[in-house]
Specification:
Layout lengths: L11 H14 L3 H14 L3 H10 L6 H12 L8
Helix pairs in contact: 1-2
């Protein structure tokens, strides 16, 4: 059974932004919010995402990652001025 959600006290500029985005997408504000709510509900929370990424193993260690970043960045500029 579908549920109804009501949002109170939206600032005028927030609502205007929703109206603009809905118009750009060719949908109504409720349709836009319904799609955004579904997208938000489907994504993991930050805590869930961090937990999943902590469980992943990697053959690379901190030293290898930092070395690869240094290689991509190139040499440090002369700090002597």
């Amino acid at each position: 059974m579908p549920k109804t959600v009501q949002i109170r006290d939206l600032d005028d500029d927030v609502y205007a932004g929703l109206v603009r985005r809905a118009a750009e997408a060719g949908v109504s504000v409720p349709e836009l919010l319904r799609a955004e709510a579904a997208r938000l509900a489907a994504r993991p929370s930050v805590a869930e995402w961090l937990e999943r990424t902590r469980r992943r193993s990697s053959p690379l260690g901190r030293v290898e990652v930092l070395a690869a970043l240094d290689e991509q960045r190139g040499p440090w500029p002369d700090a002597g001025g």
